[in-house]
Each structure stands twice: as C-alpha cells, then as structure tokens.
Amino acid sequence: MAGSNLTHKRIRTTEAPWVRYTLLGIALVFLFLFLVLPLAAVFTEALRKGLGAYLEALQEPDAWSAIRLTLITAAITVPLNLVFGICAAWCIAKYEFRGKAFLTTLVDLPFSVSPVVAGLIYVLMFGAHGWFGPWLAAHDIKIIFAIPGIVLATVFVTFPFIARELIPLMQAQGNEEEQAAIVLGASGWQTFWYVTLPNIKWGLIYGVILCNARAMGEFGAVSVVSGHIRGQTNTMPLHVEILYNEYQSVAAFAVASLLALLALVTLVIKSWVEWRHEREMKAAADTPPERPPALAKAA
C-alpha cells in the first residue's frame, strides 16, 4: 500500500523535462512581451532626449499639479475604503442578517460596472443639469469638474479591494477567538484591536496596497468627472493622455514612468507582505498550540 501511494505521488507530481521547460519558456516569453518590454519602452522613451529633458518634463507646473492631485486623491480614497472595507467585511463574515447577499452584491458592483459608466452616473447626479445640480449651483458647491467628483469616482471604483481581501479571510478564521475574548470580559473595541486586527493585518495591508495602486492609476471614471482642466483636475493618467495627444511624447512617457515606478514599488511591497505573511504562518505552524496572546491582551 505504501509503495502504491508513493508511485501515485510520483506520477502526479513529476512531468517530463520537455513539459517543464516548455511551460517555463511560455511563461518567460509572456512576461517579457507583456511586462518587461512595455516597462523598458516607457523608460526608454522617457529618457530618449536625455536626463535633462526628462527632469524638465517632471518639473513642469501642470505635471506637478497632476502628481499632487493624484497623491491627494489616493490619500483620501484609501482611508475611506479602509474603514468601509473593515466594516463591510466584519458584517458579512461575522454576522447573519437579512440582506447579507444584497450587501455582498453591492460590494462586488464596481467589478461589473464600467468605470466610464460610474463616472457618467456621478455626472447625472451632480452635474449642472443633474438631479442635484441646481441645488449645488445655488449653494456654490462644485463636485463635477472638481476634486470632490474625482475623489467620489475613485472611491467607487476602488472600494471592493479591501473588503474583498478581508471577507474570505474573516470567514475562514471564524469568530471563536472573538467570542472567547468577550467571555473573558473584553469590550468590543478591545476585541477588535487585540484579536481581530492582528488576525487580519496581512490581508488588510495587501488590500490597502491594491486599493492605493488602483486609485493612483484610475483613468476611466476620473476622465468623465474631471473635465480635463489642465493644472486643476488632471491626475497623472489624464495628464499623460493630454501630453501624448499633443505629440509631447517625451513628457508623456516621463510622467508615465512615475506611474510605472509606483507600480514597481507596489509590487515590491506586495511581495514583501506575502513573504512576511508566509513566514509568520510557518512560524505559527511550528509553534506548539497555546493560548493566543491576543486573548490574553484582550482579557
């Protein structure tokens, strides 16, 4: 029986060398064509006229305005989605209530709606001829073609990322530790801070990274609500489009290279988070079971 199991394991996990090399070659060619080559093209075009032209394109006032607006939008969007993601994941994973399936569907809605359609919805609601447009104009409140509209559109397209990372993680963990902490006398806040948060911290960080990356790179919804006002409502992706359409390719690729660098930094942070999470999980698996320190802190 042992020999049969070993033979079965070898058959299941061992392939011919040509199969492994073929699959590896296909993967490497795919990565080169769709990842390495485009990134190399971006930096090559950005530096085509030298470092001086590259730095001059980044120092241009409209470019600085686009960079600043992108960072402001991400700085507002990510904390809002952080709060929403934790609350939504907590409700869906820890409680049973009427309308739970509907709430889950709403969380997934931005994945099925085109970002352009999302931007048009905000124009329909807050535009000059929209539902609330006359009231907003009467009170001198600008949402569309202003920073609030850009933030709203970005929040809409990015809010599933953190919640979708936390929901399956919380469902897999269950709520036994939270119940134990409450039995030991912990308050709701202590239970969240000392029990729930340490258990979801890596998934939370991973979701924040994805949310931030999408917020800084969003184009479709922001393009609709921004108005493309240079120096005021253009984010970095919109500024790249305008420069490229004006045949300023070096300047366009210079700004695009910043987005590429942000993507690479995001990838590095994501890989580090995954490595730390796997290391922590391995350490926990090698440690004899004992009373979780989180419960002791909560108590």
Give the structure's gist in a few sentences.
This protein has 299 residues and is mostly helical. 81% of the residues lie in helices and 0% in strands.
Q: Which key phrases capture this entry?
A:
single chain, 299 residues, mainly alpha, 0% strand, disordered N terminus
Q: From N to C, what is the helix and strand string?
A: HHHHHHHHHHHHHHH
The fraction of residues in strands falls at: under 5%
Overall pLDDT = 85
- The unreliable regions are 1-11
Radius of gyration: 24 Å
The shape is globular
Q: Please give the alpha-carbon distance between the first and last residues.
A: 50 Å
Q: How many helices does DSSP assign?
A: 15
Structural class: mainly alpha
Q: How much helical structure, as a percent, in the residues?
A: over 70%
Q: What is the number of beta strands?
A: 0
Please describe the biggest sheet, giving its number of strands, its sense, and whether it closes into a barrel: none
Give an overview of the whole structure.
With 299 residues, the chain is mainly α. The protein is 81% helix and 0% strand. The chain has 15 helices and no strands. Helix 6 (115-126) crosses helix 8 and helix 8 (147-158) crosses helix 11. The chain is globular. Mean pLDDT is 85; it is low at 1-11.
